């Protein structure tokens, strides 16, 4: 019985992008950052697995970049003078960037939490190595911002965690307004109980209130 090969980010890089990754090339600096930019583009086409699993029509399923972009806007919109909004936006933009290579792993995919973390961290380090020849500062920043989020190392990360949950709840409500209640999305609203930020909680509560009103009107 052969041992299963350990997943590594290099193996997930599309062949066309791999052609740019020649360590001794005189154009290494520019080619590596071009490779990074092309890898990030994959987030535009990676569908969010939770919606796919709940049978949302493929044309309407948001991408990972859709999710992160709206999270960034939400982080800017909410008035809170106690946090660094710029850092929140950076964390929101970076927090799922590893999924360009890893994909959107859910608890139903058979990948353990430690293995999911390992794959994502390996991907972040790999992306950092592509950035480093071109921009050493951002190379370090991308790792630190990702760790901030994963380990909730600052108040901004805690805030963005809440924004992440709210954006998912809002997306569920968006789908229900578009398609009615034909898809069973109740479980996504359960994330409300984990939200700690007052402002984000208030947005969730209003969404849930509007949803309840619509459900009652349809039941009559």
Which key terms come to mind for this protein?
220 residues; mainly alpha; Hypothetical protein af1432; 11 helices
Could you explain the architecture of this structure?
Homodimer. GO terms for molecular function: 5'-deoxynucleotidase activity; metal ion binding. Belongs to the HDDC2 family. Residues 64-169 form the HD domain. Its cofactor is Co(2+); Mg(2+); Mn(2+). The protein is 62% helix and 0% strand. The protein is globular, with a radius of gyration of 19 Å. α4 (64-77) packs antiparallel against α5 (85-94) and α5 (85-94) packs across α9 (155-179). With 220 residues, the protein is mostly helical. The protein has one domain (9-219): Hypothetical protein af1432, CATH 1.10.3210.10. 30% of the residues are buried. It has helices at 15-18, 28-41, 49-53, 64-77, 85-94, 99-102, 113-131, 136-151, 155-179, 186-189, 198-219.
**What CATH first level would be assigned?**
Mainly Alpha
Number of separate structural domains: 1
State the share of residues found in helices, binned by percent.
Answer: 55-70%
Radius of gyration over alpha carbons? 19 Å
Number of helices: 11
> Spans of 5+ residues with little confidence (pLDDT < 50)?
none
In short:
With 220 residues, the protein is mainly α. It is built from eleven helices and no strands. Helices cover 62% and strands 0% of the residues.
Q: What is the topological layout?
A:
Elements: H1 15-18, H2 28-41, H3 49-53, H4 64-77, H5 85-94, H6 99-102, H7 113-131, H8 136-151, H9 155-179, H10 186-189, H11 198-219
Helix pairs in contact: 4-5, 4-9, 5-8, 5-9, 7-8, 8-9, 9-11
